[in-house]
Recover the amino acids of this structure.
């Protein structure tokens, strides 16, 4: 094969190499852009999950305080607190905001009360504080990832429908038994909040 023919072959394949290199570089940058966006989305989802759980845990704390006050005051509605029906949520917003901030996000929706299969819950939407950043995809440099989550407070205790709030009760809470005596009540006798109420993300 003559030198001139070899030079001709090299000249014809050079543009192909350039195009292949450009395509590979573009694919690499596109993959990085999608990975960057997915990472931002995952971070926002973690912040949303944490904020919703914090709101629900704040509600659980309020339920425990209300239950203690009702028992201490001899109120007949103390079973409503134990059932999780006396839903107030006064501190849920602050708790959700703190958790979101700890995860570099801010609450942009909620916390709002939601019914989850008959149980009280909180829905929260958050937005990441940091933008996705510069990528080959136009318009992403100022976009911030958003995510939402719902957490539910589920009572662990089985309260009989005919339970008398004026009488002592022994209730089963996920296999454990606890005694509640309205006529002889001491705040120190209350079980831990986690024994009476479960907090988890809604499916």
């Amino acid at each position: 094969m003559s030198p001139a023919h070899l030079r001709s072959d090299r000249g014809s394949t050079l543009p192909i190499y350039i195009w292949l290199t450009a395509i590979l570089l573009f694919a690499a940058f596109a993959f990085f852009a999608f990975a960057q966006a997915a990472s931002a989305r995952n971070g926002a989802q973690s912040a949303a999950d944490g904020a919703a759980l914090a709101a629900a845990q704040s509600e659980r704390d309020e339920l425990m305080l209300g239950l203690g006050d009702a028992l201490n005051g001899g109120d007949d509605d103390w079973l409503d607190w134990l059932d999780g029906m006396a839903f107030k949520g006064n501190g849920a917003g602050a708790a959700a905001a703190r958790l979101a901030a700890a995860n570099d996000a801010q609450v942009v929706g909620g916390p709002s009360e939601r019914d989850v299969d008959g149980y009280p819950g909180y829905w929260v939407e958050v937005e990441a504080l940091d933008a996705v950043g510069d990528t080959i995809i136009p318009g992403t440099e100022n976009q911030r990832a958003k995510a939402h989550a719902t957490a539910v407070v589920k009572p662990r205790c089985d309260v009989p429908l005919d339970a008398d709030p004026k009488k002592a009760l022994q209730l089963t809470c996920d296999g454990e038994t606890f005694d509640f005596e309205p006529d002889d009540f001491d705040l120190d006798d209350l079980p831990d909040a986690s024994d009476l109420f479960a907090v988890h993300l809604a499916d």
Remarks:
- The chain has four helices and seven strands.
